[in-house]
Amino acid sequence: MTKKSWINRAAASFAGLTMVGALAACGGGGAGSAPAGDGGEEMSAEDMTVGVAMPTETSERWIADGAAVESQLEEAGFDVELQFANDDIPTQQQQIDQMITKGADILIVASIDGTALSTQLQAAADQDIPIIAYDRLINGTQNVDHYVTFDNYQVGVQQGTSLLRGLGVLDENGEETGEEGPFKVELFAGSPDDNNTAYFWQGAIDTLQPYLDSGVLEVPSGQTEMDQVTTLRWSQETAQKRMEDLLTAHYGGGSEQLDGVLSPYDGISRGIITALQNAGYGRSIEDGLPVTSGQDAEIASVKLINDGVQFATIFKDTRKLATQAVEAAKSFAAGEEPEANDTETYDNGEKVVPSFLLESDIVVAENIESLLIDSGYWTAEEVEAGQAE
Q1: What angle do the packed helices 236-250 and 266-278 form, to 10 degrees?
Q2: How far apart are the C-alpha atoms of 297 and 311, rounded to whole Å?
Q3: What per-residue string of b and e applies to 235-262 under the rule 16 or more CB within 10 Å gives b?
Q4: What is the rounded distance in angstroms from the CA atom of residue 107 to the CA atom of residue 129?
Q5: What is the pTM of this model?
Q6: How far is CA 285 from CA 93, 263, 273, 369, in A?
Q7: Nearest to 26 by CA among 194, 192, 144
Q8: DSSP one-letter string for 220-271
Q9: Residue 46 neighbours by CB distance under 10 Å
Q10: I want to staple 275 with a disulfide (CB 3.0 to 4.6 A). Which of 3, 206, 238, 243 is the partner?
């Protein structure tokens, strides 16, 4: 099956599965079927308010996203109302309701649960408020007009590739080294209510499956299906507890070999690493700690990579993502359709949402400077300290 055919089927299936218990979507031509403003006339940014709904402040990644979107919108002349929902679905629903009531002209939404906002989006559609889905696709509704994100399947490919590199199965150029293993690994996935989880997982498992089939990789727990390995709300604590349970059940509490862990997010990685260190696997990769992947280039994990503790992360430059969301808002404000570079892949179960996809990079210790410091994303001092200034 091709990548696109899998993604189209997976997105529809994922949306259908997670719609259980969610509010049914209402029909319609989409929230942005007419330009913003009374009667559909063009308005300037100075006349408009953009509501920005972010999922949580428990992740430094989302704090950075919120700040980047807010500052770039304000630079473009928009008034901005930014809200974080603390990973609580009713809170996010209420925040979006309030944004609509207070007269938001455009909404940028990074959803907690991509199926839980149907009522809010219908209210926005009824007032011709365009909806921009930010990094997480909103499922099961016609009322989403544009999607800005990274190539999430490719992010998963990069996660799987980084694990194989850390194990020595692939070299730095992605070429096979001839290493036959077997290497014992365990697999983690993201939150089951986040649409991106299925894309990350499929990209990673497609990359790892040939090595699982050949015996180069083994999963002693036998947990190789996405629904067995998800981590609700991307929780570091939940990941740590699952890793502890895996070690107890399959690795003699830490006395038996474990070579690597596929992790889809840096917070999950840090929970995994804590469990491994507590079980006696060593303090760094050099002295026996299993290699662990990640995502988001969070500063705490970048320091761990620099110190040889975490092997890799995936860098998704959220400044560029914010810029693309702001460009979409500016297009809607001008009564135009935002630029899309993918109009086939992201089917939310009700429509294929026009999308703009950005590229990502694998970060390992050797390229922290070139990818993160030279680009101004983090400073050398922040990497050394492991915290943002």
Answers
A1: 40
A2: 12
A3: bbebbbebbbebbeebbeebeeebbbbb
A4: 7
A5: 0.82
A6: 43, 15, 10, 20
A7: 144
A8: TT---SHHHH--GGG-HHHHHHHHHHHHHHHSGGGTS---EEE-SSHHHHHH
A9: 10
A10: 243
Between the two ends of the chain, the Cα-to-Cα distance in Å is: 46
Would you give the distance in Å from CA 132 to the centre of its chain? 16
The DSSP string of 118-134 is HHHHHHHHHTT--EEEE
- Reading the chain (389 residues) residue by residue, the pLDDT tens digits are 434 444 443 444 343 333 333 333 333 344 444 444 444 455 566 789 999 999 999 888 899 999 999 999 999 999 999 999 999 999 999 999 999 999 999 999 999 998 999 999 999 999 999 999 999 999 999 999 999 999 999 999 999 999 999 999 999 999 999 999 999 999 999 999 898 999 999 999 999 999 999 999 999 999 999 999 999 999 999 999 999 999 999 999 888 999 999 999 999 999 999 999 999 999 999 999 999 999 999 999 999 999 999 999 999 999 999 999 999 999 999 999 999 999 999 999 999 999 999 999 999 999 999 999 999 999 999 999 999 88
Tell me the residue type at 234.
W
* Structure tokens that stand for 237 in this block: 């604590």
* Dist CA 260 CA 273 (whole Å): 11
Q: Which domains are seen in the chain, by residue range?
A: 3-144+318-358 (3.40.50.2300), 152-316+363-385 (3.40.50.2300)
Q: Distance between CA atoms of 373 and 298, rounded to whole angstroms?
A: 13
CA-CA distance, 48 to 57, in Å (whole number)? Answer: 26
State CA 129 to chain mean position distance.
25
Tokens standing for 159? 């996660």
Token pair listed for 3: 């990548």
- Tell me the C-alpha distance between 92 and 53, whole Å: 7
